[in-house]
Amino acid sequence: MISENEYKQRREIFGEKLKKHSLALFFSADPKVRSNDTEYPYRQDSNFYYLTGFEEDRSALLFCKEGKVLRTYLFVAKKDPKEELWNGKRLGILQAQERFDVDAVFTYEELNQKIKELSASKRRLYYDFALDYTKIKLLKRYAKGINCIKNAASIVQKMRLIKSESEVALIKEALAITQKAHHRALKKVRELSYEYELQAEYEYIFKKHGAKSDAYTSIVASGNNANTLHYIANDQAFKKGDLVLIDAGCEYKNYASDITRTIAVSGSFSLAQRELYTLVLAVEKEIISMIAPGILRSDLQKRAEYLLCRGLVKLGILQGKVKKLLKKEKHKKYYPHGIGHWMGLDVHDQCPYKDKNAKEIPLQAGMILTIEPGLYIDADDTDVPKKYRGIGIRIEDDILVTETGYENLSIGIKKELDDIVL
Known about the structure:
The chain is an alpha+beta fold and about 425 residues long. The protein has two domains: about 5-160, Creatine Amidinohydrolase, Chain A, domain 1; about 165-420, Creatine Amidinohydrolase (Alpha-Beta Complex), CATH 3.90.230.10. The protein has helices at about 5-15, 45-50, 80-85, 90-100, 110-120, 135-140, 150-160, 165-190, 195-210, 270-290, 295-315, 320-325, 415-420; strands at about 20-25, 35, 40, 60-65, 70-75, 105, 125, 150, 215, 220, 245, 250, 255, 260-265, 370, 375, 390-395, 395-400, 405-410. The strands form six sheets. It has a six-stranded mixed β-sheet, with helices on both faces. The protein has a three-stranded antiparallel β-sheet with strand order 9-12-13. A hairpin with a 2-residue loop joins strand 12 (about 250) and strand 13. Helix 8 packs across helix 9 and helix 10 runs antiparallel to helix 11. The longest helix is centred in the middle third of the chain and has 24 residues, at about 165-190. The protein is globular, with a radius of gyration of 24 Å.
């Protein structure tokens, strides 16, 4: 768990980055309509949650900086017995004052007046540039004296790059649950007939072990479906001899996991499937071994592309010199995506890859990123030997950068051929 003191420290760090005579405002996420009068399960805005740990909608966090003096104000939905009858209990002002270490707590309905009151003497306004137009219009209406506007989200997103021990612990818990789900899938796949049945096995394990939800819509892609990178239909029947690419991870207390494994529907791999799987796994292992403070993510990308391209030439899928093929990007037909991404409160964590000077940010201890090489060979690709057509393979792990190198947080999730062939 993340302590209230840690959330307070984050607010203090954020406040130190604000210029004098400024306001900064963060809103909770808005509920999202699914159809007519039904809504999707509520998910808090990640930046707001990072600074507060508060799960309710109709909330806001306001920073007010006068000189070096920083004050923080939390706005929460007021207690309303009629509304609570339908939608559940609210924390309310009194309990919020007890829980949160802020200078004052107000009702959400008081936010407009407070902005109007505090903005009169301020020169700068910070807010999330991704806000919807209604909220931006509100801010501009009440902050007419402001002559400088900055993106508050970019400050928080940079803070989120380095995970605390408590954040790492939550991600490890998410991965422990995700490990159970992947191992259940490995055991159950031969008993099932459809992709959605396997998806249900994952979601059952997630819920059973306390995960609020999946971290993203699960991909359960059998056969040629694996060659659609964002395949989420998950409605096709399994065919004997096919592989199934499963990209699935749970979200635990708002922190994500992101794991891909490729297993066999019938429990065994053909020779061609083994060759491609062995290549992807070897590349993944080598790229992971390179991770250490100071390494550039672009170097990991270049090395992965080189190794995959070289492997494709050895298998006869590409013809020619590796350097020339790389220069012409011929390999990207079969490996079109990046080697990985930041992960944390969002599965694709909203953290920068470059600094303010557009220079790539090197890896640092405390960062968490995915490593996910893959090969995707469409069934209709007649340029490829027939035995490889229709095979899609990706293997993905979640890696913590440490002071001396790395820790593979998902090392316990089976991926060696001897472990996944039944």
